[in-house]
Amino acid sequence: MSPFLVAIYVAAVVCAAVWIASLITHDHSWVDRIWSIVPVVYVWIFAGAAGLSNARLDVMAAVVTVWGARLTFNFARKGGYRGVEDYRWAVLKSRMPRWQFEIFNFFFIVIWQNIILFLIAMPALTAWENRATPFGIWDLVIAVVFVALTIGETVADQQQWNFQSWKKSETAAGRSPEPRFIQTGLWRYSRHPNFFFEQAQWWALFFFGVAAAGSILQWTVVGAFLLTTLFIGSTIFTESITRSRYPEYAAYQATTSAIIPFPPRHEADVPVVS
Description:
This protein is mainly alpha-helical. The protein contains 11 helices and no strands. The relative contact order is 0.11.
């Protein structure tokens, strides 16, 4: 059986499992809990199919494993595996009848997100189909870039973790934390630096396939593209909730890039809408 079919079967089983789990538990964050795991499995399926003897696929599997281990750790320390549902789903549930939300759960949370998780790993298919192409300098450059992006996301997540820990300690001590959301470190240059690094890593993985095939015209770009559109939609929704909680977030939005890190604008440079 081809590794592509094996990966499809795994994806189908994962979809069924997380959907059934959401119905039984009424918790719709099961995809979040497998997010950092299943892409790793998909890439290793192709590396294994090559007998773990193809340098490019082995490196792809290694860097994606590091990505997965880091993201799993960060998700776990925030309580993601202790049955804590994504707060955004609670907001959405309050705006929709139950039957509408369950349709949304099946088609978007379960099916669509799992399709994206499958597709972002498919540069491994391109690498497997072109496994005769030797590992070269561009592969090495891409691997270094991927690792650098992983470090960037690690720093961003740690800065957020440190801020939230400080905020909790201030609240526990009876003080009102100020500011109420992080605006320093990498977060001074992007409102979501972790989102930037996360997306960029999968664009980097796509270029492994480009290096293997010798052409940028690869259908597997759809995975990185769809992930980017998902994050854009998620950012808009998340920020609408944040702004409703913290009115001062509007000023942060006006001066700070949404995702791609840029030097912050001064308030005087922000156009005034009359």
